[in-house]
Write a structure and sequence with these properties.
Layout lengths: L5 E7 L12 H5 L2 H11 E4 L4 E5 L8 E7 L20 H21 L6 E8 L19 E8 H6 L1 E2 L5 H4 L3 H17 L7 E4 L1 H4 L12 E4 L9 H27 L11 H8 L3 H16 L1 H5 L7 E7 L5 E7 L12 E7 L1 H24 L4 E2 L16
Parallel strand pairs: 1-12
Antiparallel strand pairs: 1-7, 2-3, 2-13, 3-4, 4-6, 5-6, 5-10, 8-9, 9-11, 10-11
Helix pairs in contact: 3-12, 6-9, 8-10
């Protein structure tokens, strides 16, 4: 079977929320009013730390699709002042975030135990608060979120081939820069991580057999499988992967921005930055080439994210292994696109009405596990006013 990115078509209902005249869609989506509506119309579960689990109304998967967001919109009205990365979360928020992730992943892996039948993944995205509010393609809600999805493998196998040059698959060329030109120095830099549970894999070894993705990204196998998600040391190592990525990103784009070879003042691994990155002729040359392109090309310059933005995902591969990978987050690429899956979410209320009962039913099931963990409270919404699904009028 030919390895190729796939295009999956997923139905969605009509959107009832209207954007006020004179306000851009991105500005509205980041408003407290929209976040309030999100919780009231699609909220499933909320914790005292402001972690909100909700149904993805414009989702990626018809099988299982939910998100957990750090919803601080009621406390922090400035969209640019909200946490957008895990390293910006408070200790207790991070602890509950990890617990919710483990519980939801546990549900997905138990509900869908066969890796040959279902792709299970969770993807954590940082939403770069430094991008202009009206920039096309900017994520719709400027707060960190974790997205949980399941796709039937048969659906992926039957899907049409996606355009391999889709900008969301290539990160508009930025990912290519990391992978094609900097992968060697990136892997050497990440060797500093003292990992016991996460074991490095080659990108080819961790790739899905249906798509061949992820392509070139650093990958780590979770030794011990899903039971290790209950181990606090796993989450410590998961954090180390992020911190290493942030050091790499900050060093590279600081060099692009200023032309100066310097260790970021808040670097987690300053010696490794100095000894590996700034001592690499390849690293320095690529940064300076990119700097020149930014100076010459205003369109390209407008796409640069000067502050760290990432997608860190945990997925089950074809062999049933749990794999961790991380990528920079450019332009508007979705979690799924790191695995070679492009989702076209089309408005089709009738088709969505057919899948909604099962989809919502599974979300209410996993919510019971969160309630049992005593970390928050269940929320009522029009689609589940008393904890049971109620069909929406067409």
């Amino acid at each position: 079977m030919k390895l190729k990115p796939r295009l999956i078509v997923t139905p969605r209902p009509s959107m009832t929320l209207s954007v006020p005249e004179g306000v851009s869609r991105v500005e509205f989506f980041n408003s407290p009013a929209n976040l309030k509506n999100l919780a009231e119309e699609n909220g499933l579960f909320r914790t005292p730390e402001d972690l909100l689990m909700y149904r993805k109304l414009v989702g990626h998967s018809s099988e299982f699709d939910t998100s957990v967001i750090l919803d601080v919109s009621r406390r922090i009205l400035d969209p640019l002042g909200r946490p957008v990365r895990r390293d910006q979360m408070k200790r207790q928020q991070k602890k509950v975030w990890q617990q919710m992730t483990q519980i939801i992943c546990d549900y997905m892996l138990e509900k869908y135990p066969d890796p040959e039948k279902h792709l299970v993944l969770c993807g954590e995205a940082s939403l770069d608060s430094t991008w202009p509010l009206n920039k096309p393609g900017v994520p719709s809600i400027r707060m960190i979120h974790n997205h949980f999805m399941v796709f039937p493998m048969a659906e992926i196998a039957a899907a049409k081939e996606a355009n391999p040059n889709d900008p969301n698959l290539t990160d508009s060329g930025h990912n290519t820069l990391f992978l094609r030109l900097l992968s060697g120095v990136y892997e050497q830099f990440l060797d500093v991580l003292d990992l016991q549970i996460l074991q490095p894999l080659s990108a080819a070894d961790g790739a899905l057999k249906l798509t061949g993705y992820p392509q070139g990204l650093p990958c780590w196998e979770v030794i011990g499988g899903k039971d290790k998600l209950k181990d606090q040391y796993f989450w410590y190592e998961y954090e180390q992967v992020l911190l290493g990525f942030l050091d790499f990103y900050n060093t590279f784009f600081s060099l692009v921005a200023t032309g100066e070879e310097r260790v970021p003042k808040d670097a987690t691994f300053p010696s490794q930055v100095s000894d590996v990155l700034l001592s690499s002729n390849v690293f320095v040359r690529v940064a300076r080439d990119l700097r020149e392109q930014v100076i010459q090309d205003p369109r390209f310059a407008n796409d640069i994210r000067w502050r760290p933005a990432y997608k860190q995902i945990l997925y089950r591969d074809d062999q049933g292994r749990l794999i961790v990978t991380i990528s920079q987050n450019s332009v508007g690429n979705a979690i799924t696109e790191l695995l070679g899956i492009v989702v076209d979410r089309i408005e089709d209320p009738e088709a969505y009405a057919e899948i909604e009962p099962g989809l919502v039913g599974r979300l209410l099931e996993v919510r019971e596990s969160l309630v049992a963990a005593n970390i928050g409270e269940a929320l009522s919404a029009p689609g589940w006013p008393n904890g049971e699904y109620v069909p929406r009028p067409l």
